[in-house]
Amino acid sequence: EIVAWDVSRRPDLAQQRRLLAMLEDRLPEGVDPVLHSDMGWQYQHRWWRDRLAELGIRQSMSRKGDCIDNAATEQVFGHLKDEFYTGREFASYEEFETGLNEYIIHWNTRRRQRRLEGRTPEEFRSMSLAA
């Protein structure tokens, strides 16, 4: 499930703060989350690392070519690129942002997945937390 996301014209600290604030608001109790951020500047930024630790979020620190802890993230990105992005042209940044938000909501709430036993990510999370 994509729990939090943020789109920005540039990846700055303000964007990262918005993302983690959204994540903090939406993170279910009793989970052991891993956050993958690629190897951008934020994965080494002191504020970012401290904030993840405060929230109890394990940071994905895999090296290039060693993606065990981010395999689920890469799988989602692959589907997102194939189903939403590839081959499309967007008239504006706003059109892209609106479309991406709609796709993520679709992914979480309507897109059933074989690997989740035919459930949506939202249904699977609810079932897992109830167990």
TrEMBL record:
Domain Integrase catalytic, residue spans: 1-129
GO biological process assignments: DNA integration
Pfam families: rve, rve_2
Entries under InterPro entries matching the protein: Integrase_cat-core, RNaseH-like_sf, RNaseH_sf, Transposase_IS3/IS150/IS904
Gene Ontology molecular functions: nucleic acid binding
PANTHER family: TRANSPOSASE INSF FOR INSERTION SEQUENCE IS3B-RELATED, TRANSPOSASE INSO FOR INSERTION SEQUENCE ELEMENT IS911B-RELATED
Name under which the protein is recorded: Integrase core domain-containing protein
Natural source organism: Bifidobacterium margollesii
